[in-house]
Design a protein that fits this description.
263 residues, globular, alpha/beta, 45% helix, 6 strands, Rossmann fold, 11 helices, 6-stranded parallel beta sheet
Length: 263
């Protein structure tokens, strides 16, 4: 009986690893119909861990990517290459922490541009948790500020979980129990580098922001009220929860519609 359980667990792990394989250094990019770029949260290792099958996406971003790959099997997933410095670094040196975040913004924008050159028909989906959500939020804002309509037209959605750059009043679609408030980084833009760039409606409706009550990262003002259950909401929530699944479903529908219209 014990042997049977071991075989079952091994089979499940193999199947999950096949859904989102770990990025291969130096591999030539294949023109998958959809490219998912995922950014991990603070302190999560670029080399990956058991919680993200070694993908370097971080557990929450990885689980969201798995949900998407189950619906769009041909999608390719890559982890954003950036420091994702820990909260200890933030406490000791804010410029180093947010400087590392900006490296993630630059890497992602360059990767999107390269995708447009090498695979012009490829659709793009952005995903991120915590610091990684801030990376992706800023990528979208910077593309808007730069007037890069070519890149924006290929982005079918972004799933932002526990986003420190969140502003519930900016037209981005809200998921989770926190429907009001702004994120921690938006409270201190001169330190964090948070943008104030407004997103046009056509872009904002593609951005899905998941935030739960009591999460002091994405609702630093506490405008939505206290957590419904005790504990650290920011680290305990967002692992393939119902709001995350709903956000991913919207992005999947957008990507499928784009792929159908391109045929």
């Amino acid at each position: 009986m014990r042997f049977g359980r071991v075989v079952l667990v091994a089979s499940v792990m193999a199947a999950v690893s096949a859904i989102v394989p770990a990025p291969t250094a130096g591999a030539a990019p294949a023109c998958a119909p959809v490219l998912v770029l995922g950014a991990r949260g603070s302190g999560e290792p670029q080399s990956g861990s058991a919680s993200d099958a070694g993908s370097g996406l971080g557990q929450k971003t990885y689980d969201a990517a798995v949900l998407l790959r189950q619906r769009i099997p041909g999608a390719s997933v890559e982890s954003v290459q950036y420091p994702a410095a820990s909260m200890a670094v933030l406490a000791a040196d804010t410029s180093a922490y947010f400087g590392g975040l900006e490296q993630g913004v630059s890497w992602t924008r360059e990767r999107i541009a390269r995708s447009g050159t090498e695979c012009p028909g490829q659709r793009i989906v952005l995903m991120g948790y915590s610091q990684g959500a801030m990376v992706m939020h800023r990528v979208v804002q910077d593309l808007v500020a730069a007037g890069d309509t070519a890149a924006l037209s290929r982005i079918d959605g972004a799933v932002l979980m526990g986003d420190g750059d969140r502003d519930a009043s900016d037209g981005i679609r809200a998921w989770g129990s926190a429907r009001k408030g702004t994120g921690l980084a938006r409270q201190f833009p001169s330190l964090s580098g948070a943008r104030s760039t407004a997103l046009p409606r056509s872009v904002a409706r593609r951005v899905q922001s998941v935030c739960d009550r009591g999460d002091t990262v994405c609702d630093a003002t506490g405008a939505s009220g206290p957590a419904r259950t005790p504990g650290d909401v920011h680290t305990r929530h967002y692992t393939a929860t119902k709001p995350v699944r709903g956000a991913v479903d919207v992005v999947v529908r957008n990507a499928r519609a784009s792929l159908r219209s391109a045929r």
